[in-house]
Amino acid sequence: MLKNSTGRSLPLDLLHSTQSKQLMISWTRGTSLTSPVLKDTKSMGNASGLAVITVMLVTTCLMSLVIVLCWHKNIFLAICFILFFGSIEALYFSASLIKFREGAWVPIALSFIFLMVMYVWHYGTFKKYEFDVQNKVSINWLLSLGPTLGIVRVRGIGLIHTELVSGIPAIFSHFVTNLPAFHQVVVFLCIKSVPVPHVRPDERFLVGRVGPKEYRLYRCIARYGYRDVHKDDMEFEKDLVCSIAEFIRSDKPESNIRLEKLEDDEKLTVVGTSSSNLDGIRLSVDEADFAEIASTSELKEIRPTTEKVRKRVRFVVPESPRIDRDAVDELQELMEAREAGMAFILGHSYVKAKRGSSLMKKLVINFGYDFLRRNFRGPSHALSIPHASTLEVGMVYHV
């Protein structure tokens, strides 16, 4: 109990509630609901005004490029567009710059920070890709190993993810020189995003060989537009195996197929998905105790497998054109490898600045890019890969 100026006693809870109300009233009268950087609503208006008018001005400039490059209109029309709308927006932009010290500096500071983050990420990614290109394995090294690559070839398909569209990635040589075995069928898979909304299903895959036929090395480039939806892992595996099988069936010098030539004289065949190519090879997977290649005209049992019930993989081959014996053997080996399972080999790179680099480069690569790589999400296709079949191969990149 406390006493006031008149000598009357007051309870403690009433005293605390009275002081709390006075403090709340004084705080609401003396301060405003703004951030510490933008002290009043006027500063917030200046900051938002500069951000909005900058977006409008940049959009007008980009729209003029769309008129010329995408719509293929006359350049005079683009100049008139940017002069009319750009002059109006430039007046508002200059008026917002006058308020730079009164809050308009905040969006500029934020944009500078985001620009530095994007630059560090782009610089580190470019240096990593440059290291991959400079250290890719030559085809002569591969030919010197022989058909077995100098190691034991086990059953199954080894799917190596790489960003290279030609050549053999250094991660593959790093793997085979440290482990004594690899899969009987090796596929170098590259997933590329192309600057178009959609890629037609009949132009989804580019498939080719790496080395002679007996090596069983293939390259596959899967192309997606920026609005295409990636399929789940099971459907993608089916389309991938069917595209390789269709490439094997149509791999003839006299065949009328579309080819695309890469920088290292590698020729890739344009192959669609299994749903788009109705006249091509289709994959059938069911439960059985034997494996076979199925044709529309006949079924031939190749040989029995293990006695226990397992998944049977078979290719449904069209009647014409007839395929030769070498292609049948190659399809049989691909079918057996698919039955054994598919392993996804991902490269886990540690990017470090090489000796003799400048202090700025060491800060950007060793700290900035390394922090972004560890905290940013990986590529979208890596999220759908089953973890039970994934193998990460670590490698240090000195850029």
Describe, in plain words, how this protein is organized in 3D.
This protein has 399 residues and is an alpha/beta fold. Among the domains are: 41-103; 133-230 and 240-271 and 339-346, no CATH class. Helix content is 43%, strand content 24%. It has helices at residues 12-30, 41-70, 75-98, 105-134, 139-145, 170-176, 233-249, 325-340, 359-375, 380-383, and strands spanning 2-3, 9-10, 152-161, 181-193, 205-209, 217-224, 259-261, 267-271, 282-288, 290-295, 299-304, 310-317, 342-352, 390-398. It has an 8-stranded mixed beta sheet, sandwiched between helices. Strands 9-12-10-11 form a 4-stranded mixed beta sheet, covered by helices on one side. Helix 2 (41-70) runs antiparallel to helix 3 (75-98), helix 4 (105-134) crosses helix 9 and helix 7 (233-249) runs antiparallel to helix 8.
What overall geometry do the principal axes of the alpha carbons give?
elongated
**By helix and strand content, what is the structural category?**
alpha/beta
- Return the string of H and E elements: EEHHHHHEHEEEHEEEEEEHEHHE
Q: Number of DSSP strands? A: 14
Please bin the fraction of helical residues: 40-55%
Largest sheet, strands/sense/barrel: 8 strands, mixed
Radius of gyration: 32 Å
| Uncertain stretches of 5 or more adjacent residues | 12-16, 18-33, 288-309
Q: N-to-C terminal Cα separation, in Å?
A: 75 Å
Going across the major beta sheet, what is the strand order? 7-8-5-6-4-3-13-14
Task: Give average pLDDT, whole number.
Answer: 76
Number of helices: 10
Q: What amount of the residues lies in strands?
A: 15-25%
Domain K+ potassium transporter C-terminal: 156-398
Subcellular location: Cell membrane
GO molecular function: potassium ion transmembrane transporter activity
InterPro entries: K+_transporter (IPR003855), K_trans_C (IPR053952), K_trans_N (IPR053951)
